[in-house]
Amino acid sequence: MRKTILLFMSIFLILGLTSCANKEKKEEKVLKMGFVPLNNSETLIEDVKPISEALSKKLGIKVEAFTASNYVGVVEGIGSGSVDFGFMPPFAYLLAKEQSNANPILTAKGKTGMPGYYSYLYTTKNSGIKFVLDLKGKKVAFVDPSSTSGYIYPGAMIIESGLNLEKDVTTIFSGGHDKSLQLLLNGDVDAIGSYDGIAKRYEKDFPSAKDELVEIKESDLIPGITIVSSSSMDKELTEKLKQALKEIESDKETMELFKKLFNITGFSEVDENSYKKVEDTAKIMNVDLKKVK
């Protein structure tokens, strides 16, 4: 009888411990941090690991990085709640805001310390192209239909010059700023649309870019990369994340990585009015925020 009682006690103890372990495992919170493919998405997850770890330490919650094969993938992740927060260009943020009420947390400062950056139309020094109108009949590489500096702004500059983006130039989408640069340097396209400082950003991979690249035209100032949270993310946690990012500004090592990977030098409060220009530029491109998928 005594053995039977001990056996039942052992079984209940094991079941109790298993239940507690499963409960703890179930309740373990993991935040998914999304990035659009600003550079090679195959290595980006490993590259941003120190950023994930720094945020995990400050939040007391495990943070895991996620990158999609295209910009809309992160927008959809934010919308579904499978991505809790993300770093995305302003146009991608506007898509997330329009389609799923995503919330802007902070705007990143660029290399000049301003909460913004510029887009350029680039060519090579021996292309013979000096003005936007010279792109007529040429081949132009853009990054992604939802890329602010890699399509929306440079595309609008071409349209505003008087050229028809569909009839006067041949356009292709490369899938990444680094890939566009490679196409240009290889002579596969005549021009590209990308952000300021692309030659320095990819100096290691494309050392000739510094001497080869020529700017055709510069855009207006674009709001910086926007840190966006899903509408399903807890407000208290969102505020905690905002504070953590601000504190990371004093973490020299992590900020060096932000600068190296994304040209981010700090964070500032969001100025919603600055996104109006992005919306206006999207209209020039006949882009409907509700229909982009």
Would you kindly provide a written description of the structure presented here, covering whatever features stand out?
Keywords: Signal. Belongs to the phosphate/phosphite/phosphonate binding protein family. This is Phosphate/phosphite/phosphonate ABC transporter substrate-binding protein. It comes from Gemelliphila palaticanis. By secondary structure, the protein is an alpha/beta fold. It has 12 helices and 13 strands. A 6-stranded mixed β-sheet has the order 2-1-3-12-4-13, with helices on both faces. Strands 8-7-9-6-10 form a 5-stranded mixed β-sheet. Helix 6 links the parallel strand 7 and strand 8. Helix 3 crosses helix 10 and helix 4 packs parallel to helix 5. The longest helix is centred in the first third of the chain and has 26 residues. The chain is globular, with a radius of gyration of 23 Å. About 6% of the residues have low confidence.
What is the strand and helix layout of this fold?
Blueprint: H1 2-27, E1 30-35, H2 41-47, H3 49-59, E2 62-67, H4 71-80, E3 85-88, H5 90-100, E4 103-109, E5 116-117, E6 119-124, E7 139-142, H6 148-160, E8 170-173, H7 177-185, E9 191-195, H8 198-201, H9 209-212, E10 213-218, E11 222-223, E12 226-229, H10 235-248, H11 252-262, E13 266-268, H12 276-284
Parallel strand pairs: 1-2, 1-3, 7-8, 7-9
Antiparallel strand pairs: 3-12, 4-12, 4-13, 5-11, 6-9, 6-10
Helix pairs in contact: 3-10, 4-5, 6-12
Give a nutshell description of this structure.
The protein has helices spanning 2-27, 41-47, 49-59, 71-80, 90-100, 148-160, 177-185, 198-201, 209-212, 235-248, 252-262, 276-284; strands spanning 30-35, 62-67, 85-88, 103-109, 116-117, 119-124, 139-142, 170-173, 191-195, 213-218, 222-223, 226-229, 266-268.
